Amino acid sequence: MKKQELKMYSKIVTIIASIIGLFVFVSLYLVLPIPRGNKVDSDYYTYYKNIRGIYYISVEHSLELINHGSWGYLKDVDESTFTVLDNQWAKDATHVWFGDKLIENVDAKTFHINASGVAVDKDNVYIRDYSGSGSYSSYISPSHSGIDVETAEYFVYRLGSKQDEWMRDKDYVYHYDKRTDVDRNSFRIIGEDWFIDKNYVYLTVYNNKTQAWDLCRIDSLQHPIEPGYCYFRNGRNVIYGDSVIIRDIDIRRFEEIGVGKYLVNDMLFLNGEPFLKDSLDVKNATFYFYGRIATDKHHVFFDRKQLDDINAATFRQISDEVFEDRNYIYTIKENSWKEEYPFDKKRKE
């Protein structure tokens, strides 16, 4: 009896394991491109061909699709004329695809990616349309701002990445497919977020009403210039965001000391506003922990809070996250970003 029960349980386990295995295989088959197949063009990692057809995959390794990325088979492909143009574009004799999505009303015969990476055919420049209604294919559309097909180019790179919201041709600069009134020949990005031409300083600012990014003219260009994070030195002026917060002073010191926090000469600013103005001796102050700890001979501050239990005159840093005064050792707490008091405090032996 026991042997029969054991055999029965063994069969049940085998059947369950088989069902689970089949479910996993079918799920992977539907969720992942199986079999992997071979690259259509060895220069690009996004277009593959297997026994089921040609597919696009946005990641180099299929298992990455579990966390991010997309893939899909291309429909109605003429494999004899299919050509990969770059990692996002492909075409055959009569169709053009962006990823795995068919782009309609394109002249496939003349469609190509120019030397700058711009998608064009004989009549149109094709752009990423960020005002799309949700359909992926609606993100690609012909430009409506009259960009010259022959001279269209990308020219703005941020941290090494092409910013496809910016384009120019022989005459104009375009931002999100809108013609701007900047000087075409001198307009350029400086730092990560600022732009200048020969006349002005600019910043892109989000417009909540239109839910779009606008290019705003902030100030007439002066020299010298120094871009920072949120702050910009423009000759004798200092800009924060889209506002000039200091005008016409001799700037001897322009230094970032923390997120949103800058020193301008002997003035300290946080998010564009004077900070600890009448409390801290800024000229002789020392800053630690991403600028959140500020000290002078008489005070120690954590953000806006004065830490009265610390002897400021003897307070000094021992290592990255350890400090001392004459009586105590202070160690930065692990969750100090959320605390009003940043230290674990221990009396010296």
TrEMBL record:
Keywords: Membrane, Transmembrane, Transmembrane helix. InterPro entries: DKNYY. The chain crosses the membrane at residues 12-32. This is DKNYY family protein.
